[in-house]
């Protein structure tokens, strides 16, 4: 069982080192595919220096989801994971633990927990995002498994398609809804933090981004047969308050 980890980069020199080193440091080797959007900073040089075994493609693209799709098309591993350029695995056993769940041939996807950390202090957790209570019915409420923790058998991308590039922000929501709700892919939950994510992502950057996100969530639900409404989707913000204080023991 082989892993392919896909990282999309664009002017990511300030953060990509942690991402690269966390993949290279896994006890289970992985094919690391870096899709760069023709960065103008030192990103490509850092990838070649810090991860010489990584496969890198640097050229203009149509955004992060287009980049991810390029990586999926190049992947040769049985299991595909997405790790953003400013995210990283907190220890070297992440892929080993994920692989153990995929030993069950009936498991199509695995997800876990992640924490948001301050860019200036990577040990300072400011939000805990757990996948423990997720079920496919929660897509109707605007919830999805923490996508940076989402690993899936490559054959699902081949069968059901990759990221929809006509979505600006919520293509990850649409893809997980398509896999887990529409096509009922079987999943397993790993009750551990397996990704640290710096704060400041595009989907939570400002009010406009949130409006686009929620509009696309409603669209994704409609296109995948999920009955919902705008009140349900916006209700998720009340639950997110708990992520700021909840910390599993």
UniProtKB/TrEMBL annotation:
- Alphabetized Gene3D superfamilies for the sequence: Spore Coat Polysaccharide Biosynthesis Protein SpsA, Chain A
As one GO molecular function, the record gives: hexosyltransferase activity
Tell me which residues make up the Glycosyltransferase 2-like domain. 4-149
Q: Name one Pfam family in it.
A: Glycos_transf_2
Signal sequence segment = none
* InterPro entries xrefs: Glyco_trans_2-like, Nucleotide-diphossugar_trans
Know the name of this protein? Answer: Glycosyltransferase
Query: What high-level taxonomic lineage is stated for the organism?
Result: Bacteria, Pseudomonadati, Thermodesulfobacteriota, Desulfuromonadia, Geobacterales
